[in-house]
Design brief:
Blueprint: H1 4-25, H2 36-64, E1 78-80, E2 84-90, E3 96-107, E4 110-115, E5 124-129, E6 135-143, E7 151-157
Antiparallel strand pairs: 1-3, 2-3, 2-5, 3-4, 4-7, 5-6, 6-7
């Protein structure tokens, strides 16, 4: 939000360079005379302080808008892998289900898989890697919009476990 002081700073920013040049050349009311330079110095100091304050405020506001913990930032590398898994859990109607699903992407921290059962974010699931028979608890992080019988479901492990997918994490 632009305040009156911000608008004033914008005007001062554009004219500060001109004033400095006029002062340096001794032109007009910006001529170097005893006492005037001291006043101009205080003005420029006030302008610099206001600019620094505005810059600091902008940095803190941009930090507040930085992506949160559920952003699209990745904690570990993803691999495009089709891994067959058995998924056990409860549907949104609290009906138990199990189905064979396939991953789209995997990482040491979880996966993106296609799932036919209706689940919701935050829900706990149990995965079993069909190839290794290894079990892994996970939770649903997000769901893509359902356009067919199945939806892309992002899941995450409680702790990184690259061994579940038989990959080496970097």
């Amino acid at each position: 939000m632009l305040t009156n002081s911000d608008a004033a700073l914008d005007l001062l920013d554009s004219s500060a360079a001109l004033r400095a040049k006029l002062l340096a050349f001794g032109v007009g009311r910006f001529a170097r005379t005893p006492g005037k330079q001291e006043n101009m110095s205080r003005i420029f100091d006030a302008i610099r302080k206001a600019q620094k304050d505005r810059s600091d405020r902008a940095l803190s506001e941009s930090a507040a808008l930085a992506p949160g913990p559920h952003s699209d930032r990745r904690r570990s590398r993803r691999w495009e892998m089709d891994v067959p898994v058995f998924v056990y859990g409860h549907t949104t109607a609290q009906e138990p289900f199990h189905e064979e699903a396939h991953t789209i992407d995997v990482s040491a921290n979880g996966a993106l898989l296609m799932l036919g059962a209706r689940v919701q974010a935050g829900q706990k699931l149990l995965l079993i890697n069909k190839s290794t028979q290894t079990e892994q608890e996970c939770r649903v992080v997000s769901l893509a919009e359902r356009r067919t019988q199945s939806a892309a479901v992002a899941i995450e492990f409680g702790q990184a476990n690259a061994n579940f997918w038989q990959i080496r994490a970097h």
